[in-house]
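sry for the spam today, last one i promise. struct tokens for design, 135 residues
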């Protein structure tokens, strides 16, 4: 299958409201880009779920501002997702993650992503994941 994603498309930044509805807004943005890039439906669903999890975690556990970045790299066959935020609320960046109702997002991302990670600096954090769109 031929993909229309440009080689090394840079992450396009989109500011999101720091509200529970941000995950839905992020999914809409991601879906539009994935369609434009020609990413297959199965891979797109993995990207959309990852976007939702990263954005929801930022809304629940971090301070504003909230920003979504998406890029497509034809050379590696990955969609790159970045969610940046204003850093954790309180002193513990993992606060609330052990709760039975929450805390499954990183397990889901572990399963879906080819790679993922975090970069924390004072007053700023970036959470990223690369999702393969090639079979």
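last one done:
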């Amino acid at each position: 299958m031929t993909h229309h994603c440009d080689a090394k498309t840079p992450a396009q930044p989109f500011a999101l409201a720091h509200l529970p509805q941000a995950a839905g807004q992020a999914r809409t943005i991601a879906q539009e880009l994935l369609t434009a890039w020609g990413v297959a439906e199965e891979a797109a669903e993995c990207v959309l779920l990852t976007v939702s999890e990263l954005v929801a975690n930022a809304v629940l556990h971090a301070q504003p501002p909230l920003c979504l970045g998406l890029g497509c790299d034809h050379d590696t066959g990955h969609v790159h997702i970045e969610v940046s935020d204003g850093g954790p609320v309180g002193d513990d960046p993992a606060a609330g993650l052990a709760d039975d109702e929450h805390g499954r997002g990183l397990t889901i991302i572990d399963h879906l992503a080819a790679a993922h990670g975090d970069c924390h600096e004072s007053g700023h954090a970036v959470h990223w994941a690369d999702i393969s769109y090639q079979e």
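The longest strand covers residues 124-132. ok im logging off now
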